[in-house]
Amino acid sequence: MKIIVGCDHGGYELKEKVVPHLKSQNYDVEDVGTHSMESVDYPVYALKVARAIADGRADRGILICGSGIGMCMTANRVSGVRAIQISEPYAAKMSRRHNDSNILCLGGRFIGQDLAFEVVDTWLKEPFEGGRHQRRVDLMDSLAAESIKEDR
Ligand code: RB5
Prior knowledge:
- The chain is α/β, with parallel strands linked by helices.
- Helix content is 43%, strand content 16%.
- It is built from 6 helices and 5 strands.
- The chain has a 5-stranded parallel sheet with strand order 2-1-3-5-4, sandwiched between helices.
- Helix 1 (12-23) links the parallel strand 1 and strand 2.
- The longest helix has 13 residues, at 42-54.
- The site of D-ribose has 8 residues, from helix 3.
């Protein structure tokens, strides 16, 4: 599995721990930066990772900023991306099983190393269940939800 990882200055310290953690498990990892604590703009890195996922150049993406929120908002503007911002393993599991999430956004100022590793490992290993969830993901991805008649 190829994993593309990006961060801003708020996520740099955690990214520097997550990348070796992934490599130690023999994942193919591409680190698109940033590579220091110097202040940068998170959308630049979110878009590098999101476009790689949308174009099929990587299987999964991990984005880390201070909160994970700006990264998640930006990544989800790219068609085909299903990014999540979470801080605990149960959400990681359900986002894979039901939503086929393809980018994980973490808050470097929200979460410590050990919990981050548990979230990342859970998220990478959990399968998508497919079935009825595939139909819903397809609706989400095609934006066909706009045409669903509201049942009120
Ligand atoms: C940078 O200070 C911070 O705004 C950024 O890392 C992120 O938390 C934005 O959502």
